[in-house]
Amino acid sequence: MFASFQKLAAILLVMSCGARLDANDLELAKDSPKPNIILFLADDLGWGDVGYHGSEIQTPNIDSLAESGTRLNRLYVMPVCSPTRAALLTGRHPIRLGLQCGVVRPWATHGLPVEERTLPEAIKTVGYQTAIVGKWHLGHRDPSYLPTRRGFDHQYGHYNGALDYFTHVRDGGLDWHRNDKRNDDRGYTTDLIADEAVRVIRQHDQTNPLFLYVPFNAPHTPIQAPKNLIGKYSGIEDKKRRVYAAMVDCMDQAVGRILNQLKTSQFDEQNTLIIFLSDNGGIRQFGSVGPWKGQKGRLYEGGVRAPAVMVWKTKLKPGSEVNEPMHVTDIYPTLLNLVQANLNQPKQIDGKNVWPTIAQNQPTPHQTMLLNITPFTGAIIDANWKLVWNGGIGANQTRLPKVETWELYDLDDDPTELNNQFATRPAIAKRLKRLLNQYQEEAVQPNLVSNKAPKGFQSPAVWGE
């Protein structure tokens, strides 16, 4: 009786916060234990770099997720790494966090603001054990930024991007940690991440649900892979593409090992939610963005649309697809709704509960969706229209280009962004410019950090210490 009252109270609390609950949400809350959640995040994996999108790279385990779950074909992410991770873990747009202008560099003093409520913090309030195994990239200069201070019970992996896959060194400093202390495990990082994720699952006490966040550093640069896997792609003529393919293959094998451990440890498939996505689009030099325009760092579809899949046996139809637009900020409120966690918080959530869109084919709750706005570049989607301002410059830009550009595309008729209608649709262009400007006015001051280390900067022996 008391447990039923608690569930009802949780539902009423969520409804009072303006969150969307439908019959399916109520059924989940009524009868289901809280699901284990395994959240995979690839780094720089392009739309065209997975087998189910026609790649020559072998990704059978990621493909199996696409076959057994729902493909989220328009889950928009940020154009680079740190902003996506921040949006994913807070449900808030990077313009609210000062992270709209690029990644957290090793020499940066900022990170994800400590007053932000994170997904692991929120999910722990309803009994979850939480772990991050892989890349953090949301600040390390102060201990208050580190994962074990942000809601994770367990941490393993690295803080920066672009570390050496074999030595675990970035700019002269070791960047490998367990529970935010130096760790000297040896091996290829993707394999080590898989080893640790397998261990976490194997040792988990299933009395409590598990939230396991596995953000790979693969296939981000530097382009390095085990020799045996490079040989597997000898048919690819371009050397960098060949090594890159091996990196993606290795990550796919890591996903497979983790999925197999879920079965070995008898995690109930009917009560385990698996999410796979990439943090931004691919890099054309050695990756593939498929049919889309642009690449990582740009606000065209190739930079902000990447592979995304969600799997939950009996809750999601195998092999289904969702083509409604959603945003990475939506993952936060959607997961908190599913596990009946409190969504009432002092800071505004930008994301929306998209579970009805994913599970019941309902329309997107978004009319307007900000992709990003900085002092130098921006893009916004409103219904079928997309406005892009200075879309050709990179996300880490720190100055305006000499020539300002505006582009307007009808994504329903022109998803590959070939026909710029900015000049021929002035009323629509004006309306979207006004919407974009409103977001610009709401944005906090961005952290602008040089892409090069400041003069006199010396890397520590161990990052984060």
State the distance separating the first and last CA atoms: 50 Å
Which runs of at least 5 residues are low in confidence (pLDDT < 50)? Answer: 1-30
| Basic shape | globular
Structural class: alpha/beta
Strand order of the largest sheet: 9-8-5-4-10-1-11-12-2-13
Helix percentage: 25-40%
Supply the number of helical segments: 12
Beta-strand portion reads 15-25%
Overall residue-averaged pLDDT value: 93
What is the radius of gyration computed over CA atoms, rounded to a whole number of angstroms? 21 Å
Taken in chain order, the helices and strands follow as HHEHEEHHEEEEEEHEHHEHEEEHHEEEEH
Number of strands: 18
Largest sheet: 10 strands, mixed
Could you walk me through the main structural features you see in this protein, from its secondary elements to its overall organization?
With 465 residues, the protein is α/β, with parallel strands linked by helices. Helices cover 28% and strands 16% of the residues. It is built from twelve helices and 18 strands. Strands 9-8-5-4-10-1-11-12-2-13 form a ten-stranded mixed β-sheet. Strands 15-16-17-18 form a four-stranded antiparallel β-sheet, with helices on one face. Helix 6 runs parallel beside helix 8 (239-264). The longest helix has 26 residues, at 239-264. The radius of gyration is 21 Å and the shape is globular.
SSE layout:
Layout: H1 2-16, H2 23-31, E1 36-42, H3 60-68, E2 70-72, E3 75-76, H4 81-90, H5 119-124, E4 129-135, E5 154-158, E6 169-170, E7 173-174, E8 177-178, E9 181-182, H6 189-203, E10 210-215, H7 227-232, H8 239-264, E11 272-278, H9 301-304, E12 308-311, E13 320-322, E14 326-327, H10 331-338, H11 355-360, E15 368-373, E16 378-382, E17 385-389, E18 406-410, H12 426-442
Parallel strand pairs: 1-10, 1-11, 2-13, 3-14, 4-5, 4-10
Antiparallel strand pairs: 2-12, 5-8, 6-7, 8-9, 11-12, 15-16, 16-17, 17-18
Helix pairs in contact: 6-8
